[in-house]
Automatic annotation (TrEMBL):
It comes from the Bacteria. Transmembrane segments: none annotated. It holds the Pfam family DUF5753. The lineage of its organism: Bacteria, Bacillati, Actinomycetota, Actinomycetes, Kitasatosporales. GO terms for molecular function: DNA binding. SMART domains: HTH_XRE. This is XRE family transcriptional regulator. Residues 18-73 form the HTH cro/C1-type domain.
């Protein structure tokens, strides 16, 4: 499970505080960059938590912002130190979506919409292997195995009895009908999905084909919310070469409203569970 210090979350909190100090000083990121002889993009990456930040960076920024309270400086310096520690996922080497894993590890709740596949937190090992191999055909078997291991480790967030992740997922019927691997594998996957949907902290709903057009047709996304009020919610959109993280309140609100529409249009929990079970039986024939 997660350590007491999550470097990804520490970077976000530190970046938010540095942005607040800059805005209190009435300076733009460009003006700060000019003062420190660095690129504006570096300042932006430090503030959005996408870049590791050193204690020297914090010291220099506090100097520019004329922070005189040593307690504030010391606190920020400690956050910078914590943010450079490694989370459990770093032991697996270079993981393309490591920022997301860091956020997911510390999240209190996660709302997911997926139109194509069963979400990673609910996948069987065999489904995950077949999915990764099919989606990344040029990937070496060792890399596929590493990604599967990370997937299984991530699932500890919903299998643990100690403060499990509150997961709400809305699936399109296509995710249930797409045969990943083979029919036997799909049957096992859907049967596990039915079982997992009965956990008190996991909710699964399905939008059947005959529901027609709905707000999720633009693609997959996830909304992460955190236990600490200081950590803003994040909308995560997975990409092929890069991922998108939206943290502005207006963006999060728009996606949250869209998710409520998805929930409303989907089958209810009991209907969804039966719908999945019926398709699982089809795969058994």
């Amino acid at each position: 499970m997660a350590s007491n210090v999550n470097p990804t979350v520490r970077r976000r909190r530190l970046g938010q505080e540095l942005r607040r100090l800059r805005e209190l000083k009435g300076m733009t990121a460009e003006e700060v960059a000019e003062r420190l002889l660095v690129s504006q993009s570096k300042i932006s990456r430090l503030e959005n938590g996408r870049r590791s930040i050193s204690q020297r960076d914090v010291r220099d920024l506090c100097g520019v912002y004329e922070v005189e309270d040593h307690r504030i400086v010391d606190s920020l310096m400690q956050m910078a130190k914590d943010s450079r520690q490694q989370g459990w996922w770093h032991s697996f080497g270079d993981i393309p979506y490591s920022v997301y894993i860091g956020l997911e590890t510390d999240a209190a709740s996660l709302r997911v919409y997926d139109p194509q596949v069963v979400p990673g937190l609910l996948q069987t090992k065999q489904y995950a292997e077949a999915l990764i191999a099919g989606a990344l055909p040029e990937t070496a078997s060792a890399e596929i195995e590493k990604r599967v291991q990370v997937q299984m480790r991530r699932q500890e967030r919903i299998s643990t009895e100690d403060n499990p992740l509150r997961l709400w997922t809305v699936l399109d019927e296509a995710a249930l009908r797409r045969v990943v691997g083979n029919r036997s594998l799909m049957r096992d996957q859907l049967e596990q999905l039915v079982e997992q949907s009965q956990l008190p902290h996991v909710t699964v709903q399905v939008i059947p084909f005959d529901m027609g057009a709905h707000p999720g047709l633009n693609g997959q996304y996830a909304i992460l919310e955190f236990p600490d009020a200081a950590d803003s919610s994040v909308v995560y959109i997975e990409g092929v070469t890069s991922d998108l993280y939206l943290e502005k309140a207006n963006d999060v609100q728009k996606y949250s409203v869209m998710y409520e529409h998805l929930r409303a249009q989907a089958l209810n929990v009991e209907q969804s569970r039966q719908f999945i079970a019926d398709i699982a039986k089809e795969y058994a024939r």
